[in-house]
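fyi for ur records
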Amino acid sequence: MAEKLDTINILNLSGGIIQKIGDELASSNCVHFAENVRFDKILGRATVREGTSLIGAQISNGYNILGLHQFILSSGTKYLLSVIDGATNAQINRLESGSWVGKTAALTKNTKVRFLTYLNIVVALNGIEKFASTDGSTWVSTGTALDMDNFPLGKFAVEWHDRIYTAGVSGYPDRLYYSSIPTDLAIDWTSDSAGYIDVEPYEGQGTITALAKVPGYVLIFKERSLKRWNGSSTYPDDLCKYGTSSFESVVLGKNTAFFFSSGYSDSVGFYETNGETTRKISRPIQEIVDAISSNNYENIAGVSDGEKVMWSIGNITFDGITYSNAHVMYHIDTQTWTLLTFPTKYLAMSSYIDGSDLYLIAGDNDGQVIKLFTGLSDNITGKSNIEIPFCLQYHPKDLGARYYLKNIAKIIPATEGLSGCVFMCRTDKNKADSFNSLGSISDDYETIFNKNIIGHVFEFKYIGTTIAGGTIIGFDIITPEITLSNEI
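which gave:
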């Protein structure tokens, strides 16, 4: 005999993506997978991400952006800089009146460039060449208040406690150089107060791959270890056995540093450290992390605006579907994760102050610099108003009794502004059977799907595209019937 259950309300999405969890433990406020929706905009709902727009014109068709930085002077003057690859060499560009203008500094092609601003000077480093500028237009490799004649030829640098630290010098892979403290607004690299330390050379944990800072420490990353230095101890301390292969993955959030680590197979993922402790934060999206190609580990790039952290992870395949130009985003306060995709591949990212507003920007693999999270559609060279694809896949739900067969006759979806969005279902975790459409959303309040869906376990999914934004709230299952399996 069939028995009716009470109406089941699934109307809370505050937990974001949580993966590799037993169906019986998965809370109704989290989902198994999502694309291009954010869980931090409206608590409890999933909001389609904002769009993107082009900054200036495409610099050069088909070439990679190798570096990105906003140079801000103490006067408040701001210069946006990018490095574009080329057939012969890479070139620094400056944004001028909405157009990118190439500058004289010639850099080795196909080589990442990292920037540092200090003492009203910006320095560009790639381990092969070094250039400095006071305006982002004229670049020199000698002189300046940063003592460029003696500035070590590192791959990256960080300012900490009034000194510049740099590493990645050819022939000295474990050496950390540091400058003097400024005197009359100038530093040097040759006085007694400057110097270097060799950070546990040839210890088997790889070479120095990145530098960062948090309150109290400069952080020194190797491939398979992280060390910290307070500037006064005789030697850096080991913090943990999680390092990084990508300098670009290391970003400062509010007052902690975030990074991607791949040194050990069981520890691949994203981490947060305050210089005292380190914790893995990507456990909720471990299936997505496991889908990242190891070929892309060294190219993972991150960025943060202090509220959220985002990393590029390349193309991934999840549940048989390929997601191109994928990124994972972590919201620091709500600790929620989501997956984002974009029309092109982002190689370098940076924060960017446009007027009085702070944005995140990215340089891609097609010579473009893109402003993120603006407008309602994606826009790139030659294409405008590109629809944003989105999906949201719930955890399998047994409706309280896994061993009973259930018949769902009526479902009411709950969305806002997503007319045309398709609601789907798959039963009994049958991966060989694709999701079947239950119908499209036609109204924010009065869409009802009258279907007879029979199964033990149900997976529901929203999927669609939009150029108008929109929000997923959840759905109601109206008084489903249950019976023992052998009674149907």
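The first helix runs from residue 286 to 290. thats all i got for now
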